[in-house]
Amino acid sequence: MKRKIIFTLSVLLILCFILSSCTIDFNNKTSLSVPVVEVDVMGNASWSVVENASGYSYKINNGEIVKTNGNSVKIEDGQYIQVRADGKGNYLDSAFSEPIYYRITDCEHMDADEDGACDKCSLTIALNLTFLSINDLHGKFVDTNEQPGVDELTTYLKDLYRDNSREEILLSTGDMWQGTVESSTNRGALMTEWMNEVSFSAMALGNHEFDWGVDYITQNAQKANFPFIAINVRYKGAQLAGTTPSVIVERKGFKVGIIGAIGNCRSSISGEYNRDLHFIVGDELTQLVKDEATRLRAEGCRFIVYAIHEGPSYFGETNVNENGEVFYDMSLSDGYIDLVFEGHTHAKYVHQDDFGVYHIQSAAENRALSCSEVTVNLLTDEIMVTSAFNMLNTEYADEDIKGDDVVNEIFEKYFENSNPYTTVVGTASKTLYSDAVCDKVAELYYEVGKQKWGDKYDIILGGGFISLRTPYKVESGEVTYADLFAILPFDNTLILGSIKGSKLKFNFINTQNDRYHCYYDKSIVSSIEDNRTYYVIVDTYTSNYYPNGITEIARYTNGVYARDLLADYFRKIKVW
User: Fold this and answer.
1) Percent helix, strand, coil in the chain (nearest 5)?
2) Side-chain-side CA neighbours of residue 296 (13 Å)
3) What Cα–Cα distance (Å) separates residue 525 from each residue in 204, 351, 423, 501?
4) How many CB atoms lie within 10 A of CB 93?
5) CA distances for 401 relative to 154, 223, 410, angstroms
6) Is the CB of residue 41 less than 8 Å from the CB of residue 101?
7) Taking the CB of the first residue and of the last residue of the chain, which one, N or C, has fewer CB atoms within 10 A?
């Protein structure tokens, strides 16, 4: 009997401990913030985003509770709305907001303090939109010595979204994925996941989105919570799968149409991946955009944004305004397009064309954001672009801004333990500039080609079109594979090719193109015969460029690129 009592008491003590633990856990939960609710003069009720909310619930006139993942709903004259943020896990529901009424009155609305709300009846009478655009980020996800990554930018954007006095629309004009080891090795999946996190509304495709073929574009489109817009991209004669010509974005009942396009840069895509790919350009593109803008306005869009992966120097001499500035076909600015975000050329500018339409590009690789502020008067229907500017990363990536932890969480999903590519491969005894690095790559092409095929073919030259990317050099000191990846990010496979002597001399030996770097025995140049066949080692970007006149015979090991040869060279000699 005594043992039974002891056992029963033990069980009760354990149960009490478990129950007390559950109570402590419950008491430690955090209540979410109450959403800030507004109603405009059109009856559009909207509320602020609450961090960690799983969704929202609202009730109109204290009626049935409706759940939603959205942030707006339309109510009728005489109704009032209350909204709460719904919790999940360690977060409790917030309280419902105070009732916000919508009454159509004879109020002569005025806004002396310019806060966007009527001073008398408090209804929202102005909508303030902020457009933000990122171009040519090139996978710059983590901090480097050259520039910040996206952790502080993530914090900045999320803080911006919490400001209920404005509405933001975040866009990209392309080239977001390719360029760094942390993004390229997963073919842009990491960057796409980050773009979901910071709520991109749309992305226009850039030429470097095609660097691994269209299949990866469609795969990332399935990951993305936002559309890829590409009105002029055709694959096998049809709209590229995973893309759409445009998208409609709505803020507080105001519809914005966003059209996306890519410029005349198909030739910058390796021939392996641009087969069956067609970019509609010139007058045909202009007509496509005009037709789409007309359709969007018929759908109720009051403002049309054009996001194009192209910059002024590529638009052609026929589109020059009186100040000598070059634009896309400016007839688009005559009632079709209201604001243009551009990319591709890595330039930083804010231009206004002859019709007063702003064109903005913000350099590249996280140096700046393209920004424009637009005010909509909901009473008079007046729409005004009040500013257009470039925001430097010193503002959104200031050292006082703490990086968002979610960036590390995304990174760790793809690099679970650590980044294996940050291992030191060697040391640069001094800063190695572009020509020195490219010339060495050409020599390495020649050497590995001779080793693999030299017993059968008389290989005469190695190299071709070899070009570095930012920072265009190898800094002195320890060198990692990630460093080499950043300057040589292209996945162009080495090949053994044949070429006629005349083409060899014209395109490789006597060329004036400063991006062609070739290694060869200079003593044999005078003996090259125009009609004789010679053998060279180049990469697929060079061989697939038809005017070079190269016929591919064999390929080097797949997955070995210029950066790999350079890394092996550093490992071998230790110090360069």
Assistant:
1) 30, 30, 40
2) 29
3) 46, 49, 41, 10
4) 16
5) 10, 29, 19
6) no
7) N
CB-based contact 256:169 (threshold 8 Å): yes
The pLDDT value given to residue 125: 79
CA distance 546 to 527: 25
Contact residues for 61 (Cβ-Cβ < 8 A; gap 6+): 79, 80
- How far is Cα 229 from Cα 563, in angstroms, rounded to an integer? 32
pLDDT score, position 5? 43
Within 10 Å of residue 568's Cβ, how many Cβ atoms?
A: 15
- Using CA atoms, how far apart are residues 274 and 489, in angstroms rounded to an integer? 18
Instruction: Look at residue 440 in the predicted model and tell me its pLDDT.
Output: 98
Q: What's the one-letter identity of residue 124?
A: T
User: 141 and 193 in contact (C-beta within 8 Å)?
Assistant: no
169/200 Cα distance (integer angstroms): 7
pTM (global) more than 0.70: yes
pLDDT of 18 reads 42
CA distance 166 to 158: 13
Label residues 439-448 b or e (16+ Cβ within 10 Å = b).
ebbbbbbbbb
CA distance 333 to 7: 85
List of residues 6+ apart from 352 with CB closer than 8 A: 358, 359, 388
String of DSSP letters for 353-415: -TTS-EEEEE-STTSEEEEEEEEEETTT--EEEEEEEEEEHHHHS-TTSPPPHHHHHHHHHHS
Give the closest residue to 38 by CA, choosing from 122, 107, 163, 120: 122
Report how far residue 556's alpha carbon sits from residue 568's, in angstroms, rounded to the nearest whole number. 15
The pLDDT tens digits of the residues spanning 178-201 come to 999 999 999 999 999 999 999 999
C-alpha 360/C-alpha 229 separation (Å) is 18
Which residues, at least 6 apart from 194, have a Cβ–Cβ distance to it below 8 Å? 141, 150, 154, 407, 410
For residue 297 the two structure tokens come to: 């306005």
Omega before residue 489 within 30° of 0, cis? no
pLDDT at 183: 94
Q: How far is it between the farthest Cα atoms of the chain? A: 111
Enumerate residue ranges in the chain where pLDDT < 50: 1-9, 11-26
- Partnered with residue 519 across adjacent β-strands are 462
According to DSSP, residue 524 is labeled G
Query: Could you identify the residue written with the tokens 């070079």?
Result: 548
Angle of helix 189-197 versus helix 405-414 axis, rounded to 10: 150
Asked whether the beta carbons of 536 and 460 are under 8 A apart, the reply is yes
